[in-house]
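Throughout our pipeline, every protein is held as a single compact record rather than as scattered files. Such a record has a labelled line for the sequence and another for the backbone structure tokens. The remainder of this section carries one protein's record, kept here as part of the documentation:
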Amino acid sequence: MSTVSRPARILSRMSSRLPTTVNPAIRRLALLSLIGQTVLVVTGGAVRLTASGLGCPTWPRCTSDSLVNTPEMGIHGFIEFGNRLLTFALAAVAVAMLVYLWNLRKERRDLFLLALGLLASIPAQAIIGGITVLTRLNPWVVGLHFLVSMALVVLATLLVNRAYGRTGRARNRTLSALPGAARPVLTAAALFSAVAVCLGVVVTGAGPHAGDADAPRNNLDWDFVSHIHAVPAYLVTAGALFGVYLVLHGRITGPFRTAAFLLLGVTVLQAVIGFTQYYNGIPALLVAAHMLGAALLMAASTNAADLAHSSPRA
């Protein structure tokens, strides 16, 4: 008679049907994670820019009597609750990723831990979102909510690179050799991107788009912190230009070439949007575009730094 319990046999059968190599399904889930985290930034921006921050005035329920938004709450309730629902969708993607990686949890520990980090961060993000509502959109808590989303974009970018074999120990692509200066410069560009995003949160907390007419502001001088926010952005631009110089001077091809030009393109686009909104009264649509650009900048700078660290030295 078998000594293996029935639940163990069921789990064994289920495990036998899961991938034993990184297959297209795992790669698609990784890419979906990155897209989903970026979309979450956009929908979060829509909540704030449409003054829907208190569309669901309480948490974890949408109202004291309903888990979901009601017709009486109008468009603001729909926008806020829709943003909450997207968190559950991202959690489902993260769970699916972990399930698909179960047989690879030791062999591809890098992928498993990144997917686990994405899943573990989602409940934390939900709790911070709840505190945001309960504190009536305190700008510092709102800023923390946004910064966690940026961190998740970084994790998802690393997950995509490793799932596709672009970087990491399981890299299956040949990368062009880079000068020794590439690693520190592109790492610095990624760090300055993060600093620029953090300072952008402070600028937002001082600006007019609070998410609700009665939401508090951080009472800082918006014009002053805007100029400070621009300083790391200039440094990111310098790093991106240096990356493109390395590509053109060394005739480098492959993923790093694409990453360098992509970083420069996103940086320049962010700068154009930032200057345009500064000199035109901070219109909501441009603020939304700037928020999307922040997510793209974090992804592009992380990608460039990750590739620089995985490339052999010239």
Summary: The chain has a mean pLDDT of 90. The first helix runs from residue 6 to 16. DSSP finds nine helices and no strands in the chain.
